[in-house]
Amino acid sequence: MVTLVNVNIWNIPLEEFVYNELSFYCFPAWKQNEGSHVSDVTKWRRMAWISAIRRTDIHFADIPRSLKVCSRHFHSGKPAYEMDESHPDWAPTLHLGHSEVTATVSDRHARRQHRHHLRESEGGGQNEQNNVNEDERDGVQEDEENREQTETVKPAAKRLRAECQLCEQSSAELTRLLQENRELRSELNKLKMDEEFFKDNTEKVQYYTGLPCFAILLSTFTTVKPFLPVAKKLSQFQMVLLTLIRLRLDLPIQHLSHIFNVSRRTLSATFADTIDVLYARLTPLLYWPERHCLQATMPHQFLEAFGKRVAIIVDCFEIRTERPSNLMARTQSFSHNKGTHTIKYLIGITPPRPNVIYFKGRGGEGRGERASDKHITENCGLLNKLLPGDLVLADQGFDIKDSVGMMCAEVKIPAFTKRRCQLDAKDVEDTHAIAHLRIHVERVIGSLRNKYTLLHNTISISLLLPCKDEEFTLLDKLVNVCCILVNMCPSVVVRPDETEKCAC
């Protein structure tokens, strides 16, 4: 049997290792940088060693330097010079455990050395001729033996070459697949609707959510995250995102279900649940300011016209709805002014920052022609917020002078020429001042409807049903959330000392 010793356990990196009068030698290296002849000889020598030892776990391209052959397998006790191909110790030949490698190489080498000495000591034609004949016979025999050895080594070389080509092809294919995987993952991340999709991209945030920047979007999500339900197919950020996208763009449920890869039922339920959380957690942003704060920040336009008395500017807007199936509800919700069925809401803004919506009435307080501005104002709780001396700016439809007067407050509405030919100079001046300031609430309502187009289009009748165990409808909560989101945006009315920039 071939004696192979792994000397790496002794951590001695030597080409030759001596132990108990035995020497150990590394497998010959394939020298590819010293010319083609040296490369061929060293390659065949390495293959000859592998073929002689015949171990299935030894491969041409991967032989550890710690794997060594002992001196018992060489005639002289060590390998011959690598370029001396005729030397019997050019490859191991003794005690190999098989009979395929014969020992005739050593005899032939001995005869050749003997003839060489004879040539040097003797001269003469006959002896020289005999030596030549013997050389020719030995050469023929050597060629035959080399041919047999070559035929034994060639299948191993072919197998090794095939294995190398297969490894190269596998490595190239693996590299290609890894690169393709990285590219596909990068493309997927660009299209996936998550935090990375909006990060550092204000344009996307404004288009899909209506919010001014990613910092405000992330802050809103952080506020409501602990209260959001856990879904299997959607992350909590995606739950908030799909809700904002539907409010902002009014995309159909079917389209959103394809974008987020969920069913229509799952998306509808997620939308309703997220609206509930946004309504519950963000409602404190719609607040009635303290009177001293209101007066301390009163703009000069209001001070010049009415001093510090203006507390609120109110107006109503209507949202179109589908036609109810119930005849009574159909009659109550039809608006002759709009020519369709509507729900009416009351919006109020404060003078210091005209886009801050701090109060709204509910749509359920009345419908269509039956729901007058006066009726909604008197039943929504607004009058309870007024203090003596407060001034309310409103439109002509708000006939609430008596109701506001009971709170020791005053309402200012534009004058009209009912039963008169024309207005006098004082009425014209007051009407101009009221209209100049009251236009702010109309601009806020326009921003609200244009920014969140769900309120601009026709609302499904299913949104008008009261929520379970609540008096509010889902539409009431939608309007509330949209008002809060508008408050997070820059003012639609820019004062001379302000710039239209996001604070973040």
TrEMBL record:
Residues 167-201 form a coiled coil. It comes from the Eukaryota. Its cofactor is a divalent metal cation. Residues 109-118 have a biased composition (Basic residues). Residues 104-154 are annotated as: Disordered. Keywords: Coiled coil, DNA-binding, Metal-binding, Zinc, Zinc-finger. Pfam families: DDE_Tnp_4 (PF13359), HTH_Tnp_4 (PF13613), THAP (PF05485). Residues 133-146 have a biased composition (Acidic residues). Residues 20-101 form the THAP-type domain. GO terms for molecular function: DNA binding; zinc ion binding. PANTHER family: SPINDLE AND KINETOCHORE ASSOCIATED COMPLEX SUBUNIT 3, THAP DOMAIN PROTEIN. This is THAP-type domain-containing protein. It comes from Sinocyclocheilus rhinocerous.
